[in-house]
User: Which sequence fits this backbone?
């Protein structure tokens, strides 16, 4: 039996993946797994029983990754599950940035009470909200992951010239990118000739405030900036100056803060990028499957702190080991099993930076003493027997 703790409301279609061997509750004790959306776990004491955390979404800022890694807790996210929902809102934002639709709607409401004069007043005032078409304009997509690639492809189909930038462009993302999307060599080159810039990069120590005064100096006047990634990627003080100087004509963000809400020429959306029924369902289904897969088989897919590692189930006893990525670990494990007269039938090892993961299938079930020997090995973080 496995216990699953829910820290947010999770779509029922996702929870259905936890079968009869699972107890799922928002108050369960000694959880083996946690599934959540935006709940902030940083001040939460991690239960000793916890083996895995699954975030029903892409961002994991709300999860203490390093703390989980040190405790041998696998953290999953759901890359791509909400990509279409975000892409559609970004495309909508391109039009909102081009045409002052929001300002026009707000102004139209001021005509309430004008009676039969409304049509004439509309015709007289509409010129104040004229804008531009996006066809033929240049869009710079910063970050070409699941969302960025979809935005780039969609914008190209709408007739835009698309330039992308991603220093960590994966093979999978590259394969899904329209070949007519130009990939720039640097961030500065990507934004230098853009009429529109849309941000789709992760937030970390190296990217926080990356859209600052130095980068704004690389942009031409009148650029429209869209941020559907994380608010902290844009330095607020630099943004305010860029708007005041005319460098940024319009800023649309899905992550408003107090300062941005008070700025002119901004459209603040209350974090609706992934807020579609389809997206929430997709994320819940994907996150629950990741937990079930790991808890029952030890296989890891879409982890942010451990390497992807899969070994087909054969029915043989399986030992999973989370350990430091240091020399001689594999030989140590195989020696322990050999000394215990256990034949290794299958073995796989994968690493991710300083952490590694090994799965071993043996001919017979390992004894408690053997597992204790593996646990006592320097550099071993957590051992499970399945």
Assistant:
């Amino acid at each position: 039996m496995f216990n699953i703790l829910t820290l947010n409301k999770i779509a029922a279609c996702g929870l259905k993946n936890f079968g009869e061997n699972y107890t799922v509750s928002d108050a369960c004790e000694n959880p083996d797994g946690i599934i959540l959306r935006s709940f902030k776990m940083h001040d939460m004491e991690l239960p000793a029983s916890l083996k895995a955390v699954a975030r029903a979404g892409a961002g994991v800022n709300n999860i203490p990754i390093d703390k989980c890694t040190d405790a041998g807790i696998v953290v999953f996210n759901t890359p791509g599950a909400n990509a279409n929902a975000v892409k559609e809102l970004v495309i909508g934002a391109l039009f909102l940035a081009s045409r002052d639709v929001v300002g026009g709607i707000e102004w139209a409401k001021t005509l309430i009470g004008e009676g039969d004069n409304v049509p004439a007043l509309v015709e007289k005032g509409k010129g104040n909200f004229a804008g531009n078409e996006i066809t033929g304009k240049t869009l710079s997509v910063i970050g070409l992951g699941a969302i960025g690639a979809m935005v780039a492809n969609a914008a190209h189909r709408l007739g835009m010239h698309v330039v992308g930038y991603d220093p960590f462009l994966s093979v999978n993302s590259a394969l899904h990118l329209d070949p007519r999307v130009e990939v720039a060599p640097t961030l500065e080159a990507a934004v230098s000739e853009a009429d529109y810039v849309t941000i789709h990069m992760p937030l970390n120590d190296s990217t926080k405030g990356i859209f600052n005064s130095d980068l704004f100096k690389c942009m031409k006047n009148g650029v429209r900036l869209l941020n559907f990634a994380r608010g902290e990627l844009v330095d607020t003080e630099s943004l305010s100056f860029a708007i005041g100087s005319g460098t940024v004509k319009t800023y649309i963000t899905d992550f408003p803060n107090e300062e941005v809400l008070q700025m002119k020429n901004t459209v603040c959306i209350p974090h609706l990028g992934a807020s579609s029924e389809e997206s929430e369902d997709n994320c819940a289904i994907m996150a629950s499957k990741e937990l079930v897969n790991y808890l029952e088989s030890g296989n890891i897919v879409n982890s942010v702190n451990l390497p992807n590692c899969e070994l087909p189930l054969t029915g043989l006893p399986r030992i999973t080991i989370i350990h430091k990525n240091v020399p001689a670990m594999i030989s140590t494990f195989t020696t322990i099993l050999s000394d215990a007269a256990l034949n290794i039938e299958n073995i796989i090892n994968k690493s991710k930076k300083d952490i590694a993961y090994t799965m071993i299938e043996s001919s017979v079930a390992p004894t408690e003493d053997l597992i204790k020997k593996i646990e006592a090995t320097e550099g071993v973080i957590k051992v499970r027997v399945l």
Remarks:
- The chain has three domains: 1-82+274-306, 83-95+132-268, 309-386.
- The two ends are 12 Å apart (CA to CA).
- The mean pLDDT is 96.
- Residues 1-82+274-306 form a domain with the Rossmann fold fold (CATH 3.40.50.720).
